[in-house]
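Structure (tokenized):
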């Protein structure tokens, strides 16, 4: 474990599944002074080999993340963070309230313009078992087509809306930065500079080596087998915009 200097600042990357949180973390971890240690609440995250940590209380777990974090070999860490996806808060009630009480915590909220894209990507990853693709990887093939139940879509859309508002309401405006997945993919350097400015650390460029790639390039109409059924169901409602 590493003992941080007193000036170490804390941040958290938040988002629904498949919204680019892992990609942003990979980019930030290329910065010599920034360290983000994966999914704090995921018992299978390789950056946290001790699963027994999840038996700790909420405050103790945050102290582990921000005061006694794994160092990853970095000497001068000025900003330390972790990432938490929305379902993990559901598995640990009360943790969000403890999180927002952490002193001077800065939050980066990742979201996709179309929440259906996030759900489609999640369903594909669960079906194929392929969660990440780097540019140096061999061709992993075309992701599978998926069928999404209406009730699953309804619940997921509402969960995303509720979570985004929970985050926006939970942090002061100066302590939260919202990044769109599409902007991160389209101009990662610009997004990275925005994040560095928000955190108050030096500017940093995206590495040119082995970066994460988007796995699915086809439109929703070609990847969701019952797209027409879903479009009819949500027509005229608040989620019509996703179709």
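Design, position by position:
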């Amino acid at each position: 474990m590493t003992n941080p200097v007193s000036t170490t600042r804390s941040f958290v990357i938040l988002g629904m599944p498949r919204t680019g949180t892992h990609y942003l973390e990979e980019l930030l971890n290329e910065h010599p002074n920034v360290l983000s240690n994966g999914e704090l609440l995921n018992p299978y995250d390789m950056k946290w080999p001790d699963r027994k940590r999840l038996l700790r209380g909420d405050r103790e777990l945050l102290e582990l993340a921000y005061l006694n974090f794994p160092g990853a070999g970095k000497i001068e860490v000025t900003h330390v963070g972790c990432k938490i996806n929305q379902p993990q808060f559901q598995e640990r009630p009360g943790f969000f309230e403890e999180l927002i009480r952490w002193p001077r915590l800065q939050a980066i909220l990742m979201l996709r313009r179309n929440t259906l894209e996030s759900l489609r990507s999640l369903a594909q990853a669960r079906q194929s078992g392929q969660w990440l693709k780097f540019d140096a990887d061999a061709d992993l093939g075309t992701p599978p087509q998926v069928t999404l139940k209406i009730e699953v879509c309804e619940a997921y859309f509402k969960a995303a809306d509720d979570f985004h508002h929970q985050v926006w309401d939970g942090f002061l405006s100066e302590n939260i930065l919202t990044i769109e997945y599409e902007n991160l993919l389209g101009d990662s350097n610009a997004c990275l500079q925005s994040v560095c400015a928000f955190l108050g650390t030096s500017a940093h460029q995206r590495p040119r080596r082995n970066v994460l790639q988007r796995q699915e390039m086809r439109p929703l109409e070609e990847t969701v087998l019952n797209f027409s059924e879903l479009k009819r169901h949500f027509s005229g409602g608040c989620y019509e915009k996703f179709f």
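Reviewer-requested clarification: The chain has one domain: 9-242. The radius of gyration is 18 Å.
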